[in-house]
Amino acid sequence: MRETTLFILILTSQIAMAQTRITKEDVLTFKETLEEVEYFKYVVSKSEIKTWEKLQIEGLTKYGWLRFPDHSWIVQAETGTYPQDDDKLFDYRTIMVDVDYMFRGGMEYYLKIAKQIFEVRGLKFEIRDEKMVWGENDQANDYHYFKHEVYINDHHIVIADGNLNQMGGYMYFKKYKEILENEFENQQSNERIRLLNYEDGVVMLIGDEKLLKTYEMAIKPFKNKMLKE
Question: Rounded to two decimals, what is the model's pTM?
Fold first, then answer.
């Protein structure tokens, strides 16, 4: 009896897994849903969307996770060679963020990504006079003064100002998101930012309200979820 019960539990679990397994058809339906809300509007070479589709089929059917390729990843998938000098985005809808890298010197990189996001939309994102200042490291009092500032579209932005030992990646991430959201609002854009999880971090998803709501519903079968803020 015990063995029979165990077998039933295992079989039930296997059936449930089979029911939730993502198929190629599921991915194609997802892509069609995105096309309806003009997700691929800013893709430069529309023929590359087929490569994006192949990457999603592989990632979702094998692992259940969406992939967020930049343009160099698309080129590598098509040619087998990774282009070292290609720093362009692909869909101009998503930004994969490594918060630790952002905090440890990568903010300039992410601001340049934001510049691409804005300019492809015909919006302005001028970066100038980024400056970081370190004060004396007072180890006895656990205090190390640090200030990080930059001008975006002539707006003076203080990214960090205070004790470096009490700062971290999440603080930088929040500031980065705030910068982008403020500039969208300042330039009367109807696009906003929502956050997604993925295997190794956080993804910023950029779109209007209709796109964001459609995307949230469409990814329900996947492991990626919209994050509550």
Answer: 0.87
